[in-house]
């Protein structure tokens, strides 16, 4: 049995790299440019939504549209907060990931029973990763699929009108016909949805995977305590010291 972090958590690792938040990515000038471009594209939708809230929804009392627009604002603020946490906590995140990798490497040299404990909790963490991946990516895909169906329905009625991905009102200086606005709508919302999906798929599942790994390490310690007095008396003190040090590392 080979327990490999990058293989078990491959989707989360890929998401972290795509959204430029993985701690192994060097935070240099190139990274700063890429991250800034990504978040600026992401922020354009936020500015448009804020305009709609104050100059359209509240002005005309459109409560239904106000709720939809505010939902996008919540997503933007959540994703922005997550990205700031990632950047601020790079050292801690790297430490936790490296600790898991090291524990997995150690587990590969343990007996089958202990390997099974580590693998079981790692796979549980990966299962949570997959759930959030499906929720994040699937949510965006269903959103776009609904728009495709709406356009097909509009075409089938014989009086075809383009249905935008999200109903925005643009400032007066944006003077474009329906086709151009439709293209702009898709061009701005697609990266917004993709960036949000990547951030949720990578950020939300991190905590559970770390907790489950710690639980697995505690379970290994329980096994060691159960077998503690089976060792020779001369090795008992060293064994107890090893268990205590391991507990300290887990709770650190």
TrEMBL record:
Alphabetically ordered keywords of this record: Membrane, Olfaction, Receptor, Sensory transduction, Transducer, Transmembrane, Transmembrane helix
Pfam families per the UniProt record, alphabetical: 7tm_6
A cellular component annotation (GO) from this entry: membrane
InterPro entries in alphabetical order: 7tm6_olfct_rcpt (IPR004117)
BP GO annotations: signal transduction
Any one GO molecular function term: odorant binding
Compartment(s) of residence: Membrane
Transmembrane segments: 31-54, 66-87, 131-150, 192-215
Domain of life: Eukaryota
Main location: membrane
Membrane topology qualifier: Multi-pass membrane protein
Protein name as annotated: Uncharacterized protein LOC113497916
Provenance organism: Trichoplusia ni
